[in-house]
Amino acid sequence: MSSPDMRQIERDILPLWEHAFEPDPTDGEKFYLTVAYPYPSGAMHVGHGRTYIAPDVIARFWRMRGRTVLYPMAFHVTGAPVIGISKRIARGDPKAVSLYRDLYKVPDDVLAQFVDPLAIVRHFSEEYQRVMSSCGISIDWRRRFTTVDPQYSKFIEWQWKHLREGNHVLKGAHPVRYCPQCDNPVGDHDLLEGDKAEILKFTLVMFRWNDTFIPTATLRPETIYGVTNLWVNPEVTYVRILLDGAPWIVSREAAEKLSFQDHTVEITGEIPGTDLIDQTVSHPLCGDVPVLPARFVDPDMASGIVMSVPAHAPFDYIALRDLQTEGKYTGIEPVPLITVPGYGTVPAKEAVERAGVANQDDPRMEALTQEVYGAEFAHGRLFDRYGGSSVREARDSVASLMMDQYGSVPMYEFDTRSVVCRCGSNVVVKILHDQWFLQYSDPAWKAQVTGLIGRMDLVPPEVRAEFERTVDWLKDWACTRRVGLGTRLPWDPDWLIEPLSDSTVYMAYYTIAHHLATVSADLLTPEVFDYIYLGKEASGLPEREKLDLMRKEFLFWYPYDFRFSAKDLISNHLTFQLFHHVAIFPEPCLPRGMVVFGMGLLNGAKMSSSKGNVFLLEDAVDEFGADTVRMFLVGSAEPWQDFDWRNELVSSTRKQIDRFMNTVLECQAGQESAGNLDRWLQSRLQGHIARTTEALERFQTRQALQEAFFGIESDLKWYRRRLPAGSAGSLYLKELCSVWVRLLAPVIPFTCEYLWKELGGDDLVSYAPWPVTGPAAVDSRLELAEDLLARTVEDIESILKIIQIVPSAIAIYTAPSWKKRVFSAVAAAENKNTVVREIMKDEEMRKRGKEVTDTVRQCTTLIHRLPPQIIQQLIDDLPDEGAIFSAAAGFLSKEFSVPVSVRDAGESSHAKAALALPFKPAIVIE
RNA sequence: GCGAGUGUAACCAAGAGGCCAAAGGUGACCGACUCAAGAUCGGUUCUCGUAGGAGUUCGCAGGUUCGAUUCCUGCCACUCGCACCA
User: Is the CB of A897 under 7 A from strand B?
Assistant: First the structure.
């Protein structure tokens, strides 16, 4: 191939950009965009590539439009994952070693250093910067930092001081999944089994048996009024314990679990379930009830003993019925306490009978329980004698009544069985103490965020609903950890600030990061940051000049204009950062907009490092070239849509870029002076410029490419087709190419930077002015004329295809002037029904009779089929079709290789000539 | 299960009441140029048709309308999130 080598171009261009994108404040307008910084624990794949390339296209676009653009990057290093990784590598875990050595291609000597977690992030942040640069991402690397830099920690301390002063940080207890073996809380990724298990909060209802408490666990404490008995499993041996000194009876499993939930537990003896059966127990809210046997009672569920409400719990009802069919306990009747629409007095009984369930071992019992509980929770009301409130309210109010007055305590339990840690032991629910929370549940704070969201520019607009839901749903967030990398909580240094909570306002840090790097962390007191970010004066501020500089720079950039992130972060990071911004920054510094991205697929399957289904970004750049990767990633789908990387599609993108480059280079050969055709090309170009600009203003990278790449390419195709044989086009093509190269520069900057030089540009295309439309260059009559010609060519082709004769001549008959008058009348008519009458008022027309009414009908159909925009143009000014076709007769002859004549249909007696209509000439092929 | 979103021809994807048999790209097929090509250029790509036309389509089933890919209802399938994890 004669075209220049892409990789060579990249090597030549990269040094020109090395310090090209390091903006300082100016007098002009700024554009500040940020993307969620990466956690550099592995190599970048093409999915990451798009996350940073799509914003780069936007950054480059605004830069060319004259804005001072800031696109910074840093590395999020906080948290526990790399610690786990380094442990696994140190242990020689084959999966981890293979992932890093084989997939991420880490050299052995570097891998050896990975026993230090910081070595991992250090290595991969270098990788990230190198690969991002090789993709042409226009980042200001001066501002790079990591979240464990001492200066950053000082910044976080300042942030948290404000959060605390704003009463957004609270201390409390919190139930977590906990592995007794590892002695640590466990997250989803630490689990072998049960990663979807949720923690449920049961109320332990304290029944009394002599001097001992028998706690029954329930999610529906309000049903206490309908308790008829307790259930114990006769096959289980329960234990007697002293819980915080009080005598209880629970299952052995429950005793262990309770010991993690804020209680001291001492096992003092055993008691077989059978010993409890037929005993009488009591509770102030339901009186004396007997203890009965039931097989369905699971000792590994909560306390292992349950209270029985046969009127409302299908399990209880059927277990009681099972006993009664054996003739036992026939004196017990269900005691209803809730009315619910759709059910009679005893809902559980009805549900069981409707389903025709035979006994308590029926597998459908689970679903029946859900059905009855669901209905009662949604629409049920307690009887008046129990307060008459809705089930929804009563559940909480009865629970707190029990807690306050009847010795109840909560017990946490998973909603699914078998939650197993990676280490193999069973996970329990543990109550962590002294845990700090960000109080996202605070209605006042929520309201501030909701208000902010309402004022923000969200792209695409569909995500607005999801943001609003998220704010609504957000509960308090446990924001401190015991293990991991990160900043210590300033007022409670035993705790580390959790990773999602130390990455919420760092966009403000970027604005001054390069200055902070030159300041000793010791000097960065909260007063210093208060001055820089909030303009608050304090006595004894150090390095006053530097601080003033930083204050000025912060005010120049802030607030950020757009934050970009993938859609999976809506429910945490993207929303958190809004909470933190409203808590700390004044109104003028609050975020302006967010753009939410779709996810990436590889050959139709989800990209996943652990499954090995990834394509590394660096490999992609090596194989296809940076511009190809860029164009594919932003051109195959809009940023918020999911995209699918397929190598064969990427290769064709590469060909498109080659084609573009060759075309631009060839266009330099045009020598003729510009003619009508060039004016047409120029006129069309104005539309492409306008639509490309509009698309990029809306972050529609794909749409922009459609216009700027394929739109212009297809015009050029028509242009060349129209050109006389042997012509290389006119001098105008150079001008067009100058515009074209600039329109594509944000997407394929390497190619365009190279071409810009070839076209004689002095400076970087990255800073060349974005093309603007020239209204004077628009010639809609010319465009209409070419449109007519193209439509006619299509018609001729379609006729030729069908009749399959070798033509010897083609005649084009343009519509006679009276038909033009009919057409205009029909097109402009508001009432299509009376238009015939209007036209017939004309003497001339009346003479033609039926011919006119036929023409009206044909015009109506034709008008219906043409775009309204063209109709408007035709109403304003019908083109001189005779002149258009005569001028193009040479072209048409060349196209179809036969003589082409142009005549007025009015002067022909040919039968087909009568079919001629304005904008749709009759065609006769012989 | 709950919340948000999506479903268009072989594939990706535009269209948001009549401009729609539905842009653009990819792939496939046919030609041209070539010793040759995965390179380039032109054409075709729902079905039927010897005159620019007709017929059947836009996840499925209903409904509103003179008219629906576009609006409403229900169903089905897929994607993301459901928390202490980046």
Answer: no
